Amino acid sequence: MAAKMLGIDIGGTGIKGAIVDTKKGILISERTKYPTPKNATPKNVIATAMKIVKDLEWEGKPIGAGCPAVVRQGITKSATNIHKSWIDFPVEETFSAMAGAPVSLINDADAAGLAELSFGEAKGVDGVCLLITLGTGIGSATFIDGVLVPNTELGMLKMRDGIAEDYATNRVREQLDLNWKEWGTNLNEYLNHLEVLFSPNKIVISGGVCKKFQKYSKYLETDAEVVPAKLLNNAGIIGAAMGMQNKLSNK
Ligand code: BGC
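# beta-D-glucopyranose complex -> structure
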């Protein structure tokens, strides 16, 4: 029997959603996408997410969502690449009230990690496994023997004159027009830093740039195995849906 759940991936540039078969880890509807509103306050973003709910005829049913912030008990605690009003906002409760249905909200990288843990490259890894998403920001999902430690925010680690997000995101590669060697070297420095701190057995690279893995993998010299994510761009949607499914089955 299919376990159907709507998953919504809230990002700094786009809000994407689809109905997911959470047992198989696949999308079973079209993938709907809207640009993130310019004034990306929680209420404006939720209003956009509600368009996806309507498009996919999911009104009144539970929703799983991921967003680019630390999320503790439904409250967002940070806002690095989104409107500052997300800090300390009860996003889960507000979304649920606007949808008239239960909502589960988790960090977007944790969502991608949950999907890779069940259906992709993080599956069955002993010890520490890190999933790093490289997009507008850097997100992270940290697993210890397959158990998620949420909200690790490893993109905030200090690096050179700033933080890792200033050197190793895909945004920086595009904005500074870095070639694959220059950017790959930055990424290698960051991954080496992660290795010193966590000694991971495997590092999974997620986000759109994982499709170009062959172009920069030759610049990565790590002790851990480094691989591109298996679920590519849909991991965030699939994992968001799984977050709600997990919440319902833990009740
Ligand atoms: C945010 C993280 C998020 C990541 C990827 C970062 O700027 O701080 O919470 O996971 O971007 O969207």
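# post-check
The mean pLDDT is 96.
The longest strand covers residues 14-21.
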